[in-house]
Amino acid sequence: MTVKQITSDTADEKIKQLYETAFPEDEQIPWKDLMRLVEEMPLDFTAYYDGEEFIGFTIVYPRKSINRFWYFAVCEKLRGKGYGQKILTQMIGQFFVPLFLFLQQLTTIGAIFYPI
Asked: Which range of residues forms the domain containing residue 34?
């Protein structure tokens, strides 16, 4: 798995499409505003690839005391194949302070990951 740091200039249509389909509209920041925030804030916007195939992306707001996951999505056709677990494992290794992630399925659940 390879990673690519994303800016407003390098965010392509695949990333935008996944963003717009993976999250309910009321949980989305309008794309134009999100791209502005990516440039203005110290956000870690990362895309993940298996070879040339786009897997998904994460957007994390890193802070000294806790890192906040804003968005985490894997392409629908690749879900259930272990990619999400690989991304989370990599993120836990990358951010040494606690990670805060809301996991949503039928209900919203908060989770905090501490490095081992």
From this structure: 2-113
Domain count, the chain: 1
| pLDDT tens profile 40-74 | 999 999 999 999 999 999 999 988 777 788 999 99
pTM for the structure as a whole? 0.81
**SS3 annotation, 3-54:** EEECCCCCCCHHHHHHHHHHCCHHHCCCHHHHHHHHHHCCCEEEEEEECCEE
Report the CATH number that the domain containing residue 59 is assigned in CATH.
Answer: 3.40.630.30
- Bridge partners (DSSP) listed for residue 102: 110
SS3 category, 94 = helix
